[in-house]
Amino acid sequence: MYFDYAATTPPKDEVLKTFDAVNRTFWANPHALHRPGTRADSLLEQSRKQILALLGAGNDYTCVFTSGATEANNLALKGIAGQYRARGNHIITSEVEHLSVLSVCSFLSMGDFELTVLPVNAGGTVDPDKLQEALRPDTILVSLMHVNNETGSVNDIMQLGEVIKSGSNAVFHVDAAQSVGKFDLSLDESPVDLLTFSAHKFFGLKGAGALILKNRLQLTPLIHGGGQESGMRSGTADTARAAAMAKALRLSLEERESAFVRVQSYKKNIAATLNEIEGTELNGPVEQTSPFILNCSVSGVRPETLLQGLSEKGIYISTVSACSSQKTAASHVVLALTGSRERAQSSIRISLSAVTTQEEVDALCETLPPLIESLRFKRK
Ligand code: PMP
Asked: 114 and 63 in contact (C-beta within 8 Å)?
């Protein structure tokens, strides 16, 4: 029973089939001028168009294929910083961003960029007034995530984007790794300039992701070479991986609404079970957050011990963020939300997906209370 879908999801059979079929038939270099090359190229471009259409991004946006959200975040942030340095050197982000944003920002601030890291409220979201106050004439970039990968907190991207657009010339980057495929995103009507995601979060393949960006934006590339991907990401494009990502996105969006409602009720079940256990505190509200992610601090048990205990019963959850290589560190996200180091060191994450079943949720809810009690007893 897998409850770690925020870390990754299994690729769907149809996605694997697409990957295999495209690799067998359209394996030619899509940048070659012969017929097999141009055929591969048209499939690559078709996948790009399909992804843009599925994200409600019309002709104003382009899509750069990357190896995932980490690379896309690096490209977005370093690319904008490099390209628009002459306009200013101030960057705004928030305390709860994924490390693939936060560490890029601190890297840039070690050079000649100034950084403002916004706090979040108890719900884990950025307050529009705080963003407004932080904007300066030399702010070139604001990077804020849509859905937080540890707590499921959801930033109001529209509102935050409006604040940015009405108060500055900064470009707005959104890390949407936990929302693409799960939330309705209509980029055309949004103030978002750049958006990043990874395919393996929505039943696609690892090693595939994208940066969606407004056509008018230029980026300094991370990878120089033959000038592929409009000069923003050199190297031979992977037609099969792009086609598989388009397929995974289409399939996820087809079942999006029904999955969302179903998973919402699962999250409520699990939250109610956790709330009844003494010494547990949910990190972030249950309502108005992503139904796919739930975070909770459990006192009197080490989170690794709880993870291990569940694992022995065939139930797999996570502690801190699986995306980080630090295994026992306190969660910087829970610390930002609660201000409590104790809670940040004792947090667990339970994450759900469209393939989670009621039976799995029931088994989790039956296992958690006695297990926590017995682990606490053993510790005494
Ligand atoms: N941003 C967020 C919000 C994430 O959850 C993740 C993955 N945990 C990433 C970025 C990085 O994605 P990847 O590891 O696929 O590059």
From this structure: no
For the CA atoms of the chain, what is the radius of gyration? 21
Ligand 1 nearest-atom number relative to CA 145: 3
Task: Say what the pLDDT of residue 320 is.
Answer: 75
Model pLDDT, residue 189? 86
pLDDT (0 to 100) of residue 379: 74
What backbone phi and psi angles, to 5 degrees, belong to 31? -100, 0
pLDDT at position 328, please?
53
pLDDT at 377 (0 to 100):
81
| Intervals of the chain under pLDDT 70 | 321-328, 380
198 lines ligand 1 (CB under 6 A): yes
Q: Where are the alpha helices (DSSP H) in 227-321?
A: 239-254, 256-276, 303-312
Quick one: pLDDT at residue 327? 52
Query: What is the C-alpha to C-alpha distance for residues 283 and 300, in angstroms, rounded to an integer?
Result: 16
The domain segmentation of the chain, as residue ranges, is 13-254, 256-379
Q: What is the pLDDT of residue 329?
A: 75
Determine if ligand 1 sits within 6 Å of the CB of residue 100. Answer: yes
Between vectors from CA 155 to CA 154 and to CA 159, what angle results, nearest 5°? 140
Which helix or strand (DSSP H or E) is residue 196 part of?
Answer: strand 194-198
Chain centroid to CA 205: how far? 15
Beta carbons of 283 and 151 less than 8 angstroms apart: yes
CATH H superfamily, domain 256-379 = Aspartate Aminotransferase, domain 1 (3.90.1150.10)
Q: What is the pTM of this model?
A: 0.97
**What atom of ligand 1 comes closest to residue 321's alpha carbon?**
8
* Class level of CATH domain 13-254: alpha beta
Question: Three-state DSSP class for 172?
Answer: strand
Q: How far apart are the CA of 198 and the centre of ligand 1, in A? A: 7
Residue 336, sorted as left (phi over 0), alpha (psi -120 to 50) or beta, turns out to be alpha
190 lines ligand 1 (CB under 6 A): no
Q: Which atom of ligand 1 is nearest to the CA of 70?
A: 16
Looking up tokens 């980029």 gives: 187
Residues taking part in catalysis: 323
Given this model, what pLDDT does residue 334 score?
Answer: 96
